[in-house]
Here is the input.
Amino acid sequence: MTNPPPSRFFGRPRPFPPVATRPRAGHPRFHFIATPMLLGSLLVVGVLAAVLRLAVHGPQQLPVALAFGAVIVLGEVLRITLPGGRDNAPLAATASLGYALTTTIDRQPALWGPVQVIVVVAVATVIGSVPQALAGRPASLGYLVRRIGVTGVMAWLLRSVGASVVASATHTELFLLFAAMACLALFLDTGLAAVFASSSGTYADGSLIPSPEYPEVAAVLGSAARSSASVVPHAEHTSLVRALRRLLGNWFDECMAVARVCPAVAALSVAVALGADPLGLWVLPIAAAPVLVMQRALRRYAAVRATYQQTIRALSRMTDIAGYTDPGHARRVCRLALAIGRDLELTEPELLDLEYAALLHDIGQLSLADPLPGGATVLATPWVAAEVAARGAEVVRQTGVLDRVARVLEAQPLAYNAAAEMEAVTVADEPMAAEGADDNAESTAPSLADDGERRAAAILRVANDFEDLRTAEPGPAAHVKALARIRRGIGDPYDPCAVESLTRLVSVE
Amino acid sequence: MPKHARYFSAAVVTAAALTAACVFPGTDWTHVPRAPFVVLLALQVLLMFTIRIPMRGESPAGPALVSVMLAAIVLLPPGAAALTGAASSAFMVIRKGDPWRVAFSSAVTFLCAISGGLVYRAVGGRSVLTAADFPKALLPIGLASLVLSVVPAVLVGVFLVQVGQLTPRAAFHEYALRSGPRNIGYALVGLLTAVLWSVSYDALAAIVLLGPVVVTRWATVQYEEQRDAHDAIIRTLVQAVEIKDLYTRGHSERVAKISGMIAAELRLPEDRVEVLRYAATLHDVGKLGVPTRLLRKTGRLDDHEFEEIRLHPSRGVEVVRDIAFLDEAYSAILHHHERMDGLGYPSGLRGMRIPPFARIIAVADAFDSMTSTRSYRGARGSDEALTELRANMGTQFDPAIVDAIAAALARAELAGRPWRGDGTVASEGERGGRAQLADLPPGAVVAEFDHDDPAYQPMAVAEAEGREKPAGDDFGGGAEGVEHLGDQHQPRPAVPPQLRPLGPASLPVPPSAPAPPTRSTPSDQGSVPRDGLRLAPFAAELNLPAQTKRTPDFDRDDRDDREAGDRRAPHQPQTPSAAPAPFDREAGDRRAPHQPQTPSAAPAPFDREAGDRRAPHQPQTPSVAPAPAPAPAPAPAPAADPEKEGR
Here is the structure.
């Protein structure tokens, strides 16, 4: 195989290392420290210590604590889980942050310290999680760590470290301080969520031989960076810079994901903290009402997302129902494509598109009068494969929100054309760059796939062809034979970086 | 804008002007606190520029505006608060130029604010609120919020009803359930702002307003987004079926429309109509489970293929079972091929046990298949189709629903919108339109036999044992198809030379002699003796060569058929399926030479009285198992299978 030209998107392709020196997937210390388990155990210890201390010293202003605790419980009971695993309880967040920030209530100083804040928030959160846990949706450890940890840190900052500042601040300064603290709390929250998301790659079994029990579709359909059932370890990520870069990317994604409700949470928690002075405990129901109304919209938003997820799942099963493909084929291709994608460090939105495209890539086969043998497009003629891809993209495009996925699907059967790639890089603003053999499907597309989508399409093509070849000849060494065929290349060349990644993943076991 | 709407908006604007004339002189303008006035005015202007113009004609006082206005009402005297509202609404002219609408919305905002302010002051509300004021202060606040959300809802609702965008009931429904609680909830944010402001946080308190306001911008469109998502998903599923069977194009939409008409006639509530429409659009999604080759087959279908197609309701529900918002449509999709006499499929439900939506869809489906164009016959007129529906009333269709569709069609006719099949417009003087063949892509191969068409009802004379005469399945083939059931190994008959091409790419015509239709012999499949088969009326077209030009003389066919009785002209068969779509050549899978399939009997003697005892989505007969399952009993046994039988 000739040396592929350097492509700036995949990084400089490394020469294929000989077997002996291939690194094992390790558990870098950085990741271990950041796991929710460690922080969770620290949190439990901390909460127990706080409870003991509170029991010794006695609580302050118990009715207020109970009132805030009740609102937190209500907020947790009404927690919403967005598809993708992100838990969202705006009312609880508002109330806990408000409790941490309140300095005067009903024209009297608020005497509780950070210890009491931690205890109240922890107890209320746990109590509030019980109904949902009974319904089968327990709060994840990371979520609890974030809620209790961040609130505790804020309370400590304000009440211990900044007590003197608070005592002597004017109203304006107080307002600005509280606003700054609320924003800080939100950033910490999303940052911790990003840390947990980055570290989830250590939960891996390293094997690509599919187990008889296929992973739950929910795990597959979850946000790519969050699937704790992630199959593959990150192969060579001992570099701190790379880990930090991934962390920042995750952080940005988390911020975007919660951007919908966090302005209201921040504003209302500041309002609670400041309004507790004139209004006393009445501030709680007054501030809770808009949050509850907002939760209705959030629930609807989650339902819309869930509906799309369900539709994608239904669509991916269509070919199984119609008897065109092997059951589970789409899920296997999805797992493999995601593994390659993570290995090649696609961003989370790109991974999501790749995931959907992998689940839906066979829909176009429905238009064939006769099913392909085993549903394997790898052995079909290019014209058929292009037609299948185009029909599938047609269907996907009707959803109105999966246009990128549709473009990935259209680009999937295209050959990896290194020259075209480079030309597309230099002639970025000219959509109809001469791309040789890639014209046939792309010219009919409403818009051309951009580089990220073509990257995803190349990965999908490798994953799909590998799976097809592997299931076409079952046997103990099927994956080895399939890998060998891919590396030799069947017909049009594959993306070399994707093939290399596949080699790494398949051989690690 | 209709006249009434114009008068109404003029009246509202006049009322606002009059109120302003009354209130403004009484306001103490020198003592209006300037900072709140300016800040709140600026905030409202900002909202006007950034607010998402509601698509469903919501009141301009969306939740964000209500919260800002409550703050204004508390902090400012009523006249000043109303002025901020009206002045900011006038900025709407920059976004949406229609002066009438801008004037109207300004007037609405003005009236809303002024009434809220007056109510607030009248009930004893004060500008400065402290903890001591609660809970007494909740009364004026609550009343003011209520007024703030009711007044614009009423005014805008009446306007929209005049314009015709909403029915009064829908408008009230939407307000009471959706906007009302939401606006009151967000209004409390305004209260918090007002409280903070009066406790000397001053203009900074307005920042508190910004947070929820930003959120409402996203939150208020979620309802529409959910609706759009549902529509998009349904379009997607329909598209997935259309890439398989091109004739579904338009059929789903038409069935949905007809079902909507029936539902309107039956006065179903709006949300049920929505579910019915979803179910009607997706009723044939189970065709995804039917092999594409069958759907595109141009010849007649044999028993095994009948079985495959008869599975499509249960396959359909398998597809939609995953999708939560289609839960209610599940039963309608599953049972839309049931018959009132219990001889439908897959469950053989009888009479009123069939879910009502399924009954509606059955009627709509049959009606549309009769009034749409097929390649071998034109569309029938609506009245003809109605006659056919009435002929099968009680046996296949629910009489109440047939009456409803007749009434709905008559009503549409009276309103000047007669139903035309295929959505095409018939030329003058024709009843119901013999439309042109729908535009199909070149080279398209389409199904010849529409399984929904009740005209294709092979009937079998009852045996001497007094066996019940089950009605036939409504799959195509008529006499010829049924006759050729036994001829599995005979060569496919030829295509008549006068075959009309479907499109620019004509189908190839292999020149072999047409095999004479033979009586089917009871083969090893144990098929029912077909000797006594007789066609129902309206199946006479099958006697004629396909694709011949026929004048739209519908009476003649009936006359011919009645005169001819049982005599059938030798059928000129359709194009053989050897005319492939381009895919066929590429696909590697050539099916094995077709194995004769036993029409396996029902696994248990089916008790139609008891209705459906099985789980709903299990079909009566096994699906694609190619192993010939021997019929438990010889020839009479398949007769026990209600779908196979003709009457």
In short: Residues 168-201 of chain B form the longest helix (34 residues). Residues 408 and 414 of chain B are 10 Å apart (CA to CA).
